[in-house]
Amino acid sequence: MKVLVLGAGVIGATTAYHLAEAGHQVVVLDRQSGAGLETSFANGGQISPCHAEPWANPGVLPKVLKWLGREDAPLLFRWNRFDPALWAWGLRFVANCTSARAVQNTERTLRVALYSRACLQELRDRLALDYDQRTQGILHVYRSAREFDQGCRAARLMNQYGLDRQIQDRAQCVAIEPALAAVAPQLAGGILTPGDESGDAHKFTRAMADHAARLGAEFRYGTTVTHLTRDGDTVTGTATDRGVITADAVVLALGSWSPLLSRPAGIRLPVVPAKGYSITLAADGPAAPTVSVTDDEHKMVYSRLGDRLRAAGTAEMAGHDPSLNERRWRLIVERARALFPGAGDFDHVEPWAGLRPVTPDSVPLIGRTRLRGLWLNTGHGTLGWTMACGSARLLAQLMGGQSPDIDPTGLGIERFKISL
Ligand SMILES: Cc1cc2nc3c(=O)[nH]c(=O)nc-3n(C[C@H](O)[C@H](O)[C@H](O)COP(=O)(O)OP(=O)(O)OC[C@H]3O[C@@H](n4cnc5c(N)ncnc54)[C@H](O)[C@@H]3O)c2cc1C
Hints:
Layout: E1 2-6, H1 10-21, E2 25-29, E3 46-47, H2 60-67, E4 75-77, H3 84-95, H4 99-127, E5 138-142, H5 145-160, E6 166-168, H6 170-176, E7 189-193, E8 197-198, H7 201-214, E9 218-220, E10 225-231, E11 234-240, E12 243-246, E13 249-252, H8 258-262, E14 272-282, E15 292-295, E16 300-305, E17 308-317, H9 326-339, E18 350-358, E19 365-368, E20 374-378, H10 384-399
Parallel strand pairs: 1-2, 1-13, 2-9, 4-17, 5-15, 13-20
Antiparallel strand pairs: 3-8, 5-7, 6-7, 10-11, 11-12, 14-17, 14-18, 15-16, 16-17, 19-20
Helix pairs in contact: 1-7, 1-10, 4-10
The chain binds flavin-adenine dinucleotide.
């Protein structure tokens, strides 16, 4: 069948690849001049099933209250904006803050993330992909003994769901990543996830788009989608600034912009943008880490990409504004310099901001909608690259009527039954 994939981020590019591989005629539309130029451009670079713990959990609300109005908050809600979609999302977020929901959402995310990591490894071998990847695992470090305890509890839960996470003391953390030596006295401990990875998501996205194109997928860049076209309850294609394109099926993979396209067609997606920042700098020598590190206290991640170091973090719920707030990105510079002093030239960094497409339960939206022909692959939040390969393969299997490799229960829009 002819399938339109809307969006050429990491989700759209991997979806296009798997649909083309399954023999469909694929056309990908994106407003940018190439693949992966928005949220998939300069993210934290982690393939991190170890981050499957959802944002909504029993411990988060007191923290969010404490952080309210603080410009250096890891998670900052700007509630003063009147945005009904954000308030409706917030109610659902609160409803997901129970222990039972957090366990359920961890399982759902891990189901996709673990499958996805295996899919990525299989693709990397089969297609000989090269994207500055590192396969030394991810080390999560903690300064507070209380947070470390909580992290260990989450790690044990993830162990039960099949993710190998290993608790480390301070000396073991430094043995794994010697560049942590300078801050060792501050560390309460760490958790190593040896199977997790890192790399450059943009290079990966471009590679997947190239491989999809080799299989016959057509990428139409510089094309802005304006709305979905319909015949009753059937989606027939899309209207763009370059005319109408018809298709048998349409996949919404527009990241944070997916709800803007679906809402006029009557599908309200609980996806809101959470702005995050990264910096990239030239890095060399023993003071620069090679193992990907997550700093729990500041919710920051570090990935070595060849001769560069990427540091990323913070989340700000402030609408679709992609502009760079200098105070927020300078915070990333200061935190990176404090954790890895001497790792590189912190006075010359490339700052970047992207909008994570987050759902209230941190689980993506994968599968069909009540409109015939309209499919979702969106809402991957903080783990878009981690879950891209598995989400794409799963969706291609569902669209092709095949029995899927993993159980899709709880991953679709139908889990949000009440319309807010
Ligand atoms: C600071 C930060 C750090 C992160 N770190 C990690 C990490 O370490 N690991 C991880 O797994 N994930 C990470 N993420 C999350 C990850 O980057 C995202 O989940 C992922 O990039 C989302 O991919 P996507 O394809 O859904 O969206 P996008 O990459 O945003 O792609 C959507 C595409 O749709 C296009 N588009 C939108 N509207 C239209 C329209 N109307 N017409 C045409 N085209 C349109 C855009 O141009 C864009 O190319 C991070 C995100 C941020 C911001």
